[in-house]
Amino acid sequence: MEKAAGCPSVGGSYPQKNAEILSSQYGINLFLAGLLLTFAWAVHAVGISKSHLLSYLITLMLIQLLWMLWYLCRSCMQRRLIRDKDTHAGARWLKCGITLFAVITLILDSFKIGYYIDFSNCLSPTEGIFPVTHAVHTILQVYFLWCHAKDVIQSFKTLERFGVIHSVFTNLLLWTNGVLTESKHQLNEHKERLITLGFGNITIVLDDHAPQCNCTTTLCSIFSQGIYYLYPFNIEYHILASTMLYVLWKNIGRKVEHHQQHKTPFKFHGITVGTIFGLIVLTSTIAIVVVYLIQIGRSKIKSELALTMFYLHAIFVLALMCTAGIVALFIYRLEDRSLDNSKNPARKLDAELLVGTAAGSWLLSWGSILAIMCARAHPKYTWYNLPYSVLVIIEKYIQNLFIIESIHREQEKVNDDIKTLRIATISRGSTLSLTPSYKEIYNGRATRDSGEVPCLFKGSICGRDSGGGGAKEETSQENSSVMHSASDFSFYSRNSVTNNKRRVLKNIAAFLFLCNLSLWIPPAFGCRPEYDNGLEEIVFGFEPWIIVVNLAMPFSIFYRMHSAASLFEVNCKT
């Protein structure tokens, strides 16, 4: 029922705005309580054990499961109703990506269940309940996101706001728990390697939460080691789920503009060069990571060689990425295309995440630069850290500009302009149609084989006689034909240039996409020179620098995966 005229939005805006504020505050307090509990467990606070943290997380997951089941049942009962959809949210490639990470997360849960069975004599029952609950939570959540990520909720809005924001911060806490567990494992390995680099003055105290009992089966080592190799995928799964749910929360009660959404499927055609160079970078990065993990910690010489190898490879890749980004931005400056400034929660979140998570890498890079400038002794391999850190800052700066401008650029309207050429030409009262289709003209395939100029380029009359006109009329038509021909060839030339620009941009996006995947692999799987070069620990102190790395590294890792996802979208859109 419509509201009375005069103040149409006052009656509904304040309750909804208050519900948004209340739900956001509920979510923040939920997250802060869990974050403090996680921190207390990490520092071995008195009276706080891992079972307390897992019990809290299990409770949050069970509440989210109840809400999702209620929402799915209500949606099933109302399936015949026409609902608003946000066409920009929950892209199919994003759903496929989160499904892949979810499958690997389920493998991780099965490993945790096996680990609990092996050490069941000395582990809390919550450590067995947690992976089972998490597996059920993962399956139902992926199904929920596949079916309802695009929903614009218009009923039970206050209740739904609390349910969705609860889901957002539950996934953030699960992400935090995964990051902390993986970071503690990496830190223990790092402490053991420091001695081989000659930093014997650093006290090695392992922060171990290993069970204090013997394994009951022969699979213990497989489960314990496999868990940490699967954590990076679990971490990406939860952060992707939280971002998709956050967009769903922002869309609650939103008025959607109904307009036709152009589908932008991904095509490999035209991106061969970018894909080949990107695959070369990906393959070489995997090889570098394998050699690095084998050599680091074996001896001081081997560790220094591994660090030097990593820095040289990263400098080369980052330099290529900077060059590609500059070329793309230069092409954008040559084009005169307006930006789409319409309200779009998904696009706004993408831009904010790019800049916000890049700050993690920038913090580490500036710390390394300051350490190099202030250190008294400089081993040879540490000098490679300087150009590496500078390039990390510059590359993210350029790449953010490219991605943000790309996702805000309006779709090219070349096809619409070409369609206007298929008009009826009026000559002496006759309506004449043009022979070649706009697709043939656009792709330059019209009468290519015959070598003849298409009908469009021969003037306003095609394939018909003038019907007995005078000499002046023929001369006038010839002059008009020449003018039309010149204009049409100019149009064809402009579209040929546009095609070339689009092809270059698509190759750049494909190359940067694979490069970001390549740069995600080293830190995600334990190749972290910020830990291993030892220079920063000497300048800032061991504990302060480790805290900085543990806080900034998760954002740096997420930045690479989020950039890859954004560049995939850019490639589809270009």
TrEMBL record:
It is found in: Cell membrane. It is a multi-pass membrane protein. GO terms for biological process: inner ear morphogenesis. Keywords: Cell membrane, Hydrogen ion transport, Ion channel, Ion transport, Membrane, Transmembrane, Transmembrane helix, Transport. It holds the Pfam family Otopetrin. The keyword Glycosyltransferase does not apply. One of its GO terms (molecular function) is proton channel activity. InterPro entries: Otopetrin (IPR004878). It comes from the Eukaryota. The chain crosses the membrane at residues 26-47, 53-72, 93-117, 129-147, 228-249, 269-294, 306-333, 353-375, 504-526, 538-559. GO terms for cellular component: plasma membrane. Belongs to the otopetrin family. This is OTOP1 protein. It comes from Balaeniceps rex. The gene is Otop1.
